[in-house]
Specification:
Blueprint: H1 2-15, H2 17-45, E1 57-66, E2 69-73, H3 80-87, E3 91-97, E4 102-108, E5 111-120, H4 124-127, E6 132-134, E7 146-150, H5 151-158, H6 161-164, E8 168-171, E9 175-183, E10 196-199, H7 200-206, E11 219-224, H8 230-237, E12 252-260, H9 261-264, E13 270-271, E14 274-275, H10 279-307, H11 313-321, H12 326-363, H13 374-400, H14 404-409, H15 416-452, E15 462-466, H16 470-473, H17 475-483, E16 488-494, E17 504-506, E18 509-511, E19 522-527, H18 531-535, E20 539-542, E21 555-559, H19 560-566, E22 575-578, E23 581-589, E24 604-608, E25 615-620, H20 625-639, E26 648-649, H21 650-656, H22 659-693, H23 695-703, H24 708-742, H25 753-780, H26 783-789
């Protein structure tokens, strides 16, 4: 029986080549899209999946209230990990560590290399069991001059990990560290990436703020003992800082919370000052899109199969007459649907292999198809049979319900309900397609808005160079010589680049009229002279720091948001104190975006202190940037030969802030194109079938004098009606969906009416191009030929 069903299915497939190709191509495109998204979703869910499970590993979250303002984040006091392990018996291991992405310069002999790494406490490898190739995890970071390096770094400097142990490596050309351990190169699916780890005590020795319980920046992660109840521990640590944080008071308080470490990557965002959202939203969005596109492909199959059901009516009638049960016919047609899907799966795996490198380039991942994974094949099997069942369910039930007497008499007709259902399927698939088109246009509009928004400073032709080595000691000489070079307009230094999202926040502030309970946190940036000239900032009041005023050595510039928070009237010359340093306000700068556009502009203090500069900012002349970079490289090698020359363009750094949105935009274009292409394949098939079914009617109308234009309108108007209805249904859903997405941006574009008009025009134009050729072909056929064949 199976052999017979297979033979019939293959005959049907070969007999109706056009419709078979349309079905297989549509299903293949939908499945290819689903497979690529499946690989991406699996990769996202597998981040940090290499750590042993289950482990009660929790990251600490800190909430702070200042009056009616509330803040939340993973930043905690640098001493928290050590104190929690000492004071809380439930904590088995605890570590504080940075996630700054420090770029350090290392030297061994004459070899100089820049690597990216972090600072971490001695429990790091107990909390995060990254495999060590050499050395012991228990004492890898026990001494202040210990450094742990990656296998790659060990090979670059020493040739092998074993030789590296115990060797000395110089950091930033001033401090020597002993290699105490070598870890294997981190997998790409690790949310923590580094090539070296420096002992936590070194950070404490070099930075006084680390010893202050009121300063926050590092992350803290703990491992709880097996018998610990997480909810009880959550309640216990909530007020852990009540005594340690000396700034707490009636209008300022700090509380701690916990989150499972394995949930951080996908759920690492905060909404309304609570944990919520993050990359999980993209996982859900693309998963829904994959389902949408697969459903569109299934609808195509349903429509084309039921539309051509009259072609197989006699076969069904004969089978029922000779004793075939309805259940047997259902399984036959379901089997045919699964066969189509199997053929489409084979084609889609080939397409996925072909497009995967391109998809990796867009998504920034290194995915591959895991042919050796049983779980992957199980997922493929589930998708295959689910798609086959969905695509074949209605056609199987519909075809198996034919009355054999009516079929054999040739009196079968589609009921209004069947025709309405088929039109409903077309409407539904075009609703999904229009949703994707509208969403893509709005995402593109927001990305363009981000790229074009006035940040309050000019990010074009702005270059950042790290302040390191002799540049720190000879900055004045470097600046004077660089300003005389062609292509360079202005030079300054700054503690944090404008595109750096993690800002140094302080609340140890004082000004005339400040309430003692006011603990509002302000962002703090240190700089030297010529900041406004270099960044092209606009002054609202006062001036930039000037060499002509000695008092500017203790001066401050506030942005508009900071001035509003303080409530100071006529601020120029007023006294202002930051971190115990008393000075005067010399200027007020107009607000500029030094944060991501996802966040509102924070109150900012710009303090004069060149010793705190970590980046040199250089303004180049438009069109002469390449020449300027070459000059800068020569000068840096002359003044700072022990450090490789590195630089970053401000506009490139800014674009990196919105990589997720850029990826979303590119993938949205792709998915919208696929959705509309699959939908149009269905329309094409229906147009071909309609022309076949109505060929006699068309011939009669032509004989009676109908023009080609009249026939075109007659045959195509139903398609256009369905597309217009689909568009009208999709508009409110698209508006609601994209309004919710835009809420994640503090600064966002408006949803313009033209987006919906453009989407509607696009849908109608695509429909016209899809059906017009076949409809015109049918309208131009000689009536004699059509009537003769009938």
């Amino acid at each position: 029986m199976f052999k017979n069903y297979l033979k019939v299915a293959l005959r049907s497939l070969l007999k109706n080549k056009t419709f078979s190709i349309i079905n297989i191509v549509g299903l293949s495109l939908g499945l290819t899209c689903s497979f690529l998204i499946l690989l991406w979703v699996n990769d996202e869910n597998n981040v940090d999946g290499f750590f042993p499970k289950p482990t009660a590993r929790y990251t600490i979250i800190q909430r702070a209230w200042a009056g009616d303002k509330k803040g939340i984040g993973y930043y905690t006091p640098a001493l928290l990990g050590e104190e929690m392990k000492r004071a809380l018996p439930q904590v088995m291991n605890a570590v504080s560590y940075t996630k700054w992405g420090n770029v350090g310069t290392f030297r061994v002999g004459e070899k100089i290399i820049k690597e990216t790494g972090e600072y971490a406490g001695e429990d790091f490898f107990k909390v995060f069991p990254f495999p060590l190739i050499s050395g012991e995890s228990n004492n890898a970071l026990s001494a202040i001059n210990d450094i742990v390096i990656s296998k790659k770094m060990a090979q670059d400097f020493f040739g092998s990990p074993d030789i590296a142990i115990g060797k000395t490596i110089r950091f930033e050309n001033k401090d020597d560290f002993r290699v105490s351990a070598v870890f294997d190169n981190l997998p790409v699916n690790s949310s923590i990436q580094f090539d070296y780890l420096i002992n936590w005590h070194y950070l404490k020795r070099e930075n006084d703020w680390v010893l202050d319980w009121n300063s926050v920046s590092p992350y803290t992660t703990v491992v709880l003992r097996d018998d610990t109840n997480p909810e009880q521990f959550r309640n216990q640590v909530r007020h852990f800082l009540d005594i340690l944080n000396t700034q707490q008071g009636p209008n300022y308080k700090v509380e701690l919370d916990i989150q499972r470490f394995d949930e951080m990557y996908l759920n690492g965002a905060f909404k309304d000052k609570e944990i919520g959202g993050g990359r999980i939203e993209y996982v859900r969005m693309f998963s829904i899109i994959a389902i949408f596109i697969l459903v569109i492909a299934c609808i195509n199959f349903m429509n084309l199969t039921t539309a051509r059901s009259q072609k197989r009516a006699k076969e069904i009638g004969v089978r029922k007459t000779v004793g075939a049960l309805k259940s047997m016919l259902i399984w036959q047609f379901m089997g045919e649907a699964v066969l189509f899907v199997l053929l489409a799966v084979i084609a889609s795996i080939g397409l996925a292999l072909l497009f995967l490198p391109w998809f990796n380039g867009i998504s920034g991942k290194e995915m591959h198809i895991p042919f050796s994974s049983g779980f992957f094949w199980l997922q493929i099997a589930i998708i295959t049979f689910s798609t086959g069942l969905i695509a074949g369910s209605y056609p199987a039930l519909f075809l198996s319900s034919f009355n054999p007497v009516k079929v054999l008499k040739g009196s079968i007709k589609f009921s209004p309900g069947v025709l309405l259902f088929r039109k409903g399927l077309v409407v539904f698939q075009f609703v999904l397609s229009c949703l994707l088109i509208i969403s893509t246009l709005i995402i593109s509009q927001q990305i363009k808005f981000i790229q074009a928004v006035n940040l309050g400073f000019d990010r074009e032709n702005l270059v950042s160079i790290p302040m390191e080595g002799e540049l720190t000691n000879r900055y004045t000489v470097f600046r004077q010589e660089v300003l005389g070079m062609p292509g360079i307009k202005a030079v300054t230094l700054i503690s944090q680049a404008p595109s750096q999202t993690e800002k140094y926040m302080v609340n140890d502030l004082d000004w005339q009229g400040k309430s003692i309970q006011d603990k509002t946190a302000f962002a703090l940036i240190y700089t030297g002279y010529d900041l406004c000239q270099t960044l092209h900032l606009q002054m609202k009041e006062g001036r930039d720091f000037s060499r002509n005023f000695a008092q500017d050595s203790s001066g401050y510039i506030l942005n508009e948001s900071a001035l509003a928070k303080t409530g100071i009237k006529d601020p120029i010359g007023k006294t202002f104190t930051c971190l115990g340093k008393r000075g005067t306000i010399v200027g007020v700068v107009k607000d500029f975006h030094f944060n991501s556009l996802h966040e509102a502009i924070a109150p900012l203090i710009i303090a004069f202190d060149p010793t705190q500069g970590s980046n040199i900012l250089i303004r180049t002349e438009a069109g002469r940037t390449t020449q300027a970079i070459s000059s800068l490289e020569r000068k840096c090698k002359q003044i700072n030969p022990d450090f490789p020359f590195t630089y970053q363009f401000s506009d490139e750094a800014y674009r990196k802030l919105y990589r997720n949105e850029d990826i979303t935009g590119k993938l949205s274009y792709l998915f919208a194109f696929l959705a509309i292409s699959i939908s149009c394949l269905g329309l094409l098939g229906l147009a071909i079938f309609t022309a076949e079914q109505r060929s006699k009617e068309i011939a009669v109308r032509k004989v009676l004098g109908a023009s080609v234009v009249q026939l075109f309108v007659l045959l195509s108007r139903d398609f256009f009606k369905l597309v217009i209805i689909s568009f009208l249904i999709s508009v409110p859903f698209a508006w609601w969906m994209m309004s919710s997405w835009l809420q994640d941006f503090a600064y966002r574009t408006e949803i313009s009416w033209w987006v919906f008009v453009a989407a509607g025009v696009a849908a109608i134009a695509i429909t016209f191009l899809t059906v017009s050729l076949n409809v015109l072909k049918a309208a131009l056929v000689s009536p004699t030929r059509s009537l003769k064949s009938q």
